[in-house]
Amino acid sequence: MAKYRIEFDRELCIGALACTAVAEKFWPRADDGKVDLANAAYNEETKKWELIIDEEDFAVNKEAEEVCPVLAIKITKIENNE
Ligand code: SF4
Predict the structure, then answer these.
(1) Predicted local confidence at residue 81, as pLDDT
(2) Is there an atom of ligand 1 within 6 Å of 51 CB?
(3) Across 11-18, average pLDDT
(4) Which uninterrupted H or E stretch holds 67?
(5) I want to staple 33 with a disulfide (CB 3.0 to 4.6 A). Which of 1, 15, 46, 72 is the partner?
(6) Number of structural domains found in the chain
């Protein structure tokens, strides 16, 4: 089954909450008005939050990526040999 990596640049997030509207389970609102990517790990190198998801969670998060006005969400497919 294919897996995908979500990368979230929280610095860019302006708290528009469009992502929350389409996938609240993954993009809950945080106390500072921005959102968090639930269960994500912070990557010190890229300064982004990362989460690996399965195919079944791809569609809603792809929608979140598409509705984010500042392109803070990026989803890439992980190849099998990775
Ligand atoms: S849609 Fe983008 S800017 Fe808006 S809360 Fe989500 S990540 Fe932040």
Answers:
(1) 53
(2) no
(3) 97
(4) helix 58-67
(5) 15
(6) 1
